[in-house]
Known about the structure:
Structural class of chain C: alpha+beta
Number of helices of chain C: 3
CATH superfamily of the domain at 3-57 in chain C: ADC-like domains
Strand content of chain A: 15-25%
Order of helices and strands of chain A: EHEEHEEHEEHEH
Strand order of the largest sheet of chain C: 1-2-3
Number of helices of chain A: 5
Radius of gyration of chain C: 20 Å
CATH architecture of the domain at 3-57 in chain C: Single Sheet
Mean pLDDT of chain C: 94
Largest sheet of chain A: 2 strands, antiparallel
Largest sheet of chain C: 3 strands, antiparallel
Helix content of chain A: 25-40%
CATH topology of the domain at 3-57 in chain C: N-terminal domain of TfIIb
Structural class of chain A: alpha+beta
CATH architecture of the largest domain in chain A: 2-Layer Sandwich
Helix content of chain C: 25-40%
Distance between the termini of chain A: 38 Å
Low-confidence stretches of chain A: none
Number of strands of chain A: 8
Distance between the termini of chain C: 42 Å
Number of strands of chain C: 7
Oligomer: heterotrimer
Mean pLDDT of chain A: 93
Amino acid sequence: MNSFVQGDPLLCIGCRTCMIACVVAHEGKRIYEIDPDGYDFHPKLKVVKTWLVSVPVQCKHCENPACQAVCQSGAISTVNGAVIIDQDKCIGCKACADACPFGAVRMAALGFKTNPDGTPRAVANKCDLCQGVDGGPACKRVCPTAALRLVEREDVDQIVARKRVNSVLTSLQP
Amino acid sequence: MSNGVHEIEDAALLFVFGYNGADSHPIVARRIVRAKQKGATIICCDPRRIETARIADMHLQLRNGSNLALVNSLAHVIIEEGLTDDAFIAAHSTGFEELKELVKKYSPEAVSERTQISPRDIRRAARLYATSGRSMILYGMGVCQFAQAVNVVKGLANLAIMTGNFGRWGVGIGPVRGQNNVQGACDMGALPNSYPGYQNVTVPEIQAKFEKAWGVKLPNKAGIPLTQVPHYVLHEPEEKKIRAYYIFGEDPAQSDPDLPEVREALSKIELVILQDIYMNKTGQFADVVLPSTGWNEHDGVYSCCDRGFQRIRKLIDPPADADVLTDWDIISRISTAMGYPMKYSNTEEIWNEVISLCPSFVGATYEKLEKYGNIQWPCRSTDMSDKGTSFLHKDGKFANPDGKDRFSSIDWQPPTELENDEYPLILSTCREVGHYSVRTMSGNCRLLRNLEDEPGWVQMNPELCEELNVKHGELVKILSKRGSCVARCLPTDRVKKQAVYMTYQWWIGACNELTIASLDPISNTPEYKYCACRVEKIADQAWAEKYVLDEYSKIRADMGIEVGKKGGKAA
Amino acid sequence: MPVKQIQSTCAYCGAGCQIMFSVDQEANKILEAVPAQGRTNDGTLCLKGHYGWDYINDPQILTKRLKKPMIRKGGKGSPLEPVSWDEAVRYVAERLTNIKNQYGPDSVMCTGSARGPGNEPNYLMQKFARAAIGTNNVDHCARI
């Protein structure tokens, strides 16, 4: 089963340290030295704020991903327990962004992809669980309130087990 | 703060008043979250649905500018319902009868309309605060940045005294100081009325002590507060005018209220000296610029918001092509050239002089700071066993001559400039979490710049946006009696329809073009949290977008950045 | 590349967080900032603590680093021109002395700084105002 990172709105303070950490994890520490415009700033997660919640939203790494099902170019696949977009193959049709029930896929004009006229070309962009990054998902590591956690198979099993017990208890009440 | 940051999570109840920790101090806000996890009750008083309001047990979404009405009403309920700690009041305070008399007229019913909070909620909040057994108050700029500010602070202190919530672990009253070393600048006597260590300049014995230590006759009249400089330049008679202004690590032409007036004043001062690490808006008016070392290029001590002294350490040398000096070296050279010699070879020598003159700091030696990391003053003994003081007023002892605290009895006053037909909305300034102060540091950090950049946002209730027919991200014009600026519309139901909010970090969306220089008579803090404004739709968005880009380029050119260099995104 | 770990205090807000910096001293460069264990921050940092230090490399995004003392030699409105420290210090001292002599010490206003410089320069600045100029006109931007 794929893991995913989930935020807890009771702990999140909406500071967006996670969004910057995501960029640093994917761009590397070179960003502190290069031309300030020489890298892309497209976090693969986004903090939403409403009356009730503040929390980052990111890919659930579905087992049967809607984004993959609608992808015309075969750019989306599951690799090492994470749903990954091959941005080289992405044709920018936006079908995946539309299909994702969680709003976790965003179109991003990444600098390394350009149109014939030199302008940046938009491709689909989303959480890849920090594949190949030491220490795992960077967003989770930097969160000052520990509002983010990696949800793994055992966690899901536990949540479900707890709900099973609760549902029995609830049904016993008069 | 009367109590340590680390104590926040151990309070049984947190009363968070006009303090948005999540944006101003995320790492203090973390303690509020942890307090909640540990079972604390949280009451949040704020006109906005801030992060703390979201997790609070009660959110008192009071009307902007009604602070003291609410605070006096809370006192009314605590007294009326007999929830006071009478033994503590009798032993450690004076003036209670006077307060009792004053708050009679502040029943929850009487203030409900003014505060927009139901009497039931005011009663419930007062009861919770008075009966938790361990209640801590945290307040911030939502209290301080009003023309009636100090009296609200005293009003909050009233609540803590009458319920005995002082002098223990996890209680007290915490003004969470904004900037990294605002506590330190106060500790060091960068104040018009006090020497280092809060020793008053008008007390003859103290004056004599410093005269002896510094070997010179000293003035005994309190000085002028910074926020009154424009007044002293523009409106005082010739013999009282300010003629020279030595500005050190600050940017009044960006941070102070009513910028048109600040600019007029700066242009009329005979000599403006700017000592800083980056060019800034004030630099445009400077006659002399003295470049200094930045954070990470020098040693020293900072004081954090809960009186904690901590070391800063030199990590790197200034750039090879920079002919810069440390701040202390620059000041020493000027002083010496003016015939008052200052000779120091490092910051520890200066620090030893500081602590030798301040009884509350005596024990905070570099040696102890090195060993323990953090010393909260008072620390009165050099003995290694004195590690400082986590909370003040132990055993109910206060800093007044009689050792008692005095209740303050003051009536609520309305803000200075109320909404009107021409300017029907309230403008309140606030903070951008990823930026700091006037942005000369954070605005030059790549990632922080990318997260949020010019011209900044104006937070507006969705209903207001609909009325004005403006959408998310659209550029709008915000105007007050004093000036105008352009910012992007951010619709959010976290703000009430009657008020809009802007962060003061932006140079294009510079909300201080609009703010009013109405000052609290005691603290001289401006009323940044309340002035009348109007928001206008800009029909030609293409023009507005170009205006923002052009302004950004102009600012960067003015700040000395070579033409053609990239970086300005105005995202 | 010899990398040294040096702990310091964050310069961005009153929380007083402790940061562990990785510094390449030979190249005179900061490489990374990670949270250190401090009393107030308890091993955590926010976005400014993590990512708010590369301004020191003068990336010229908003403003330019000041690198030389400068004076408007032609008076108000003329350009700022680079000068030596000796000249800058002499210029400031002379003009302050003249203003003090002509209008009295209370015609001079000095500020401390609530930001990067630290406690020691703030102490010296108020000592300078009080002892060298002779005025209590010293204050700082506590109120913003």
